[in-house]
């Protein structure tokens, strides 16, 4: 029985070593959320998009929002690999989520920031592009006129 105990210990050590290696590999990547914009027309498209990333290594959760055309992947994953996998497996055009909530931007209706294709309450991310971000900031005269006719200003124009 000594030889069999030796073999079982040896194989058990080998399996734990492999598990340690997997965990070590997963721990290198931080837990993150990857948002991807993919056009989803029907339930079949939704299922295909979900299944394309569902069984990737490191994926904890997959959310598909067909109304906003958004795929959200949560887990220990590389964002570029997720994007490539969605493009390859579905054959659809996919890009990282380019929108941010409207409340974050000072001037949401500036040219280059406002996007008619964006979901309700979202605008284009102007922080990444310096040319657009300069247009999205209100000048001092605009701020002066906006506060003069604001409902929050008690000394606002009486016409309002």
From TrEMBL:
Cross-referenced Pfam families: HMA
Chain segments annotated as transmembrane: none
Cited PROSITE patterns: HMA_2
Domain HMA: 31-99
Tree of life domain: Eukaryota
CC per GO annotation: membrane
Molecular function, one GO term: metal ion binding
Main location: membrane
InterPro entries: HMA_dom, HMA_dom_sf
Topological relation to the membrane, as annotated: Peripheral membrane protein
Keywords, in A-Z order: Metal-binding
GO biological process: plant-type hypersensitive response
Location(s) in or outside the cell: Membrane
The keyword Lipid biosynthesis belongs to this UniProt entry's keyword annotation: no
Family annotation (PANTHER family): COPPER TRANSPORT PROTEIN ATOX1-RELATED, HEAVY METAL-ASSOCIATED ISOPRENYLATED PLANT PROTEIN 27
Protein name: HMA domain-containing protein
Organism of this sequence: Coffea canephora
